Amino acid sequence: MAIWDGNAITFATSGTVGGTPYGMFVDINNTVYVANRANNQVQVWLQGSSIPTRNITTGLAYPYSVFATITGDIYVDNGYSNNRVDKWANGTINSTVMYVKAACYGLFVDINNNLYCSMYTENQVVTKSLNSNSNMWIVAAGTDCSGSTSNTLNSPRGIFVDTNLNLYVADCGNNRIQEFPSNQTSGITLAGSTATGTITLSCPSGVVLDGNGYLFIVDSYNHRIVASSSSGFRCIVACSGGGSTSTQLSFPQNIALDSYGNIYVTDRNNSRIQKFTYQQRSCSKLFCIKKHRVVIVDMNIFFVTIIYLRNHLV
Fold first, then answer.
1. Three-state SS for 68?
2. Predicted confidence band at 312 (pLDDT cuts at 50, 70, 90)?
């Protein structure tokens, strides 16, 4: 069973990421991206760096989320004031790739190059193909009105799309995680309210799925990170309640994992980024750590932050 050190390392403080950070991403090279809403920018740390090595600022207003692809393209929410999603390519060139009605609390690009935006205030997740020149989108989940039925959402936040193009939504207002099978608008509750035998959630704000089908969930209003396993759901870090110590979180918002299995969390109300170090050393079906590198055991591994591990194959 995977284990993480309960004493987190503060990766970045409020002096760097500003007040109440929300979105974050870690790419295949362990580059960390943080959406700094307070200063209208996205900050970038290369692996091993303790300070940002790059700031993306052009035209941004209160960015909530960020996503980076294997090709190095960076997608940034710019919906709060400017009603769009922007793309940075080749280091500096930026363009608008999607027009939206509100801020995207979650962004994701799937293996077919479809971009998804989770619009919290609109109770919808929308999507469009990045292979198309059109900026128009279609509804992937939810309607214009909030609701708790299988085809509605209430203030959705983080999102994830697996290799089968199933969409997972942190349905904050309904205290549940919803799965929408590929091309379906009716969801299945995997965790939280109405899902018997799972776990009680309070405004989940982030979700990641691994290659074995295990969920990692940011249980925001319970100030903790929980995950599923072969024996059910459990709290994995910050299990003692909200606070500001190294073992606690206060209204965490987003989660990312690097290629070593370490967990990064945007600790919103403490205005910091926390890193929980992966401790397990024995191999499992998911992955194992050997000589401080990831050794692939199951080729279906699909963490959002290690979609392609070609640089770590041994």
1. strand
2. very low
